[in-house]
Amino acid sequence: MKRKIAVLFGTRPEAIKMAPVVRALRESSCLEPLVIATAQHREMLDQVLTVFGIQPDHDLNLMRPNQTLAGLTSRLIASIDDVLRDTAPAAMLVQGDTTSVLAGSLVAFYNNIPVGHVEAGLRTHDMRNPFPEEMNRVLTGRLTRWHFAPTASSAQNLCDERYPDETVFMTGNTVIDALFEARQHPDKIARSVQDGRRMMLVTTHRRENFGEPLRRICAAVLQLLEHDPVLEVLFPVHPNPNVSSVVRRLLGKHPRVSLCAPLDYLSFIAAMEAAHLILSDSGGVQEEAPALGKPVLVLRDETERPEAVAAGVARLVGTDTNRIVSTVCQLLTDPGAYLQMAQGASPYGDGRAARRIVDILERELGCREQPARDAAAAAQAVLIGAPA
Ligand code: UD1
Ligand code: UDP
């Protein structure tokens, strides 16, 4: 009988990044997924479940309009506990740094269920930025048995925090697996924008950007539209009322701004491919845009994803209106600067992260003796600090 691995997620990005893991678990000869959707997000989660054909085994349906961190956390703890007591999985996987991740890891710990943390080791070392995500991932690290770090620098962060070498694995980020899977279905990608326009794609949702920073971002968008008469803006608006009310009020009436509801994942990939450049405070978008050869300007003061910045394909521009405007203007007017950022790079993975994670779990849970099916994948699933 296959052993059940709980795969817990609640928000859009967690579901996108866990979909390849669910698929790899379905292909395992000795493990199988038990999908627990907290539905910390409702509509945006459902979009992802539809695209990837995932039917949760348990849907906790926890989202409330304008939910508070404490209110959501308390609902998560009680509901996840019920499911874990009933199902007693052999292990549980969580992904990233959301409230669902922290609550899920804590409840797994209470129930003596080992936790695998997918996308482990990202750090800004500033507990208020991103808030509360930096605290969530640091605390989740303490509750984790297997840390699946996406990059060398995230693995190094964990080693610096003195996690035992044999618990830290560098696997790549499953976001690239999901992206590759989506791009295999160009026929299914709804063309939400016409190719050939000079389109700037914008997304924001971070708590640190609520209020004045978001107003400064909107002011920059308006100045850029004034500066460049052929520029068009596509802005899928996050449903968080702290975002949507401000964005709709400040940008809703401009004839060259298209505000829309969150796009389903395949349409969003198409929008990124059609974009000339991208402004975003999103984590996932920072990882996907470089792989698509699209310059991404990060609307934050710090990032836990330094690799794309180091590769010259992403730039941290913060939320200062003048700085955003001058950086975009440079990219719009200087083809050399634009091409340097549009060279394409994939510092976050090679599309085989989920396979590596499942291979490691099979080995760690003692249910597979034979060599990994994907030898290349296994070769790169390095134990950090292990002798060569
Ligand atoms: C959450 C995560 C953040 C992640 C982001 C991805 C936390 C603390 N924050 O932020 O790390 O980057 O998701 O998008 O876990 N809403 C809807 N429908 C939806 C989704 C959200 O209406 O499908 C609205 C609801 O009013 C909800 C609010 O947005 O209460 C906030 O959702 P929440 O998950 O608490 O925070 P996010 O800002 O989405
Ligand atoms: N995304 C999407 N539709 C949209 C905007 C984003 O499917 O309208 C995808 C995007 O491709 C990425 C993920 O959502 O994979 C990022 O989610 P978000 O920005 O909400 O969260 P973060 O990554 O910052 O945690």
Automatic annotation (TrEMBL):
EC number from the UniProt entry: 5.1.3.14
**Which keywords label this protein?**
Isomerase
Q: Is the keyword Isomerase in the record?
A: yes
Fetch the InterPro entries from UniProt: UDP_GlcNAc_Epimerase_2_dom, WecB-like
Q: Do you know which CDD domains this protein is assigned to?
A: GTB_UDP-GlcNAc_2-Epimerase (cd03786)
The secretion signal range is none
Q: Which reactions appear under catalytic activity for this entry?
A: UDP-N-acetyl-alpha-D-glucosamine = UDP-N-acetyl-alpha-D-mannosamine
- Under what name is this protein listed? UDP-N-acetylglucosamine 2-epimerase (non-hydrolyzing)
Q: What is the lineage of its organism?
A: Bacteria, Pseudomonadati, Pseudomonadota, Betaproteobacteria, Burkholderiales
